[in-house]
Give the backbone structure.
Amino acid sequence: MARIAGVNLPTNKRVIIALTYIHGIGRKTAVDIATKLGIDQSRRIQDLSDAEVLQVREAIDADLTVEGDLRRETAMNIKRLMDLACYRGLRHRKGLPVRGQRTHTNARTRKGKAKPIAGKKK
C-alpha cells in the first residue's frame, strides 16, 4: 500500500488512476508526473519499487499543492471573499450560486432541499 500526501493509494489500480485519488491531482497532472519520472502509465501501483514511490512522493511535494494545504488555501480564499463582503463573498455567505447561475429554478445543489411555503396554492 503506497501512501503519498497522506492518502493510501489503491494497489491494484494503474499509476495514473491511483494518483487521482489525491485531492488536487487530476488525470492530466498524473500523466505529467508519470512521464516526467519515466514511469510507464500502464503499470500498477503494486509493481512500483519503493524508490519509484519515493520519487513520485518527492515530485508531488516539490511541485504541487495537494490535500490539506490545498483545501486550507481554498477555504481561506472563500473566507477572504466573505470578509471583503464583495458580491461573490455575499453569495457564498448566503449559500447561493456564485457564478451567475439562475436561482428561480435549478439551484437546488446550493440552496438545499425545497422548503414548502405555507398558504401558497394555485
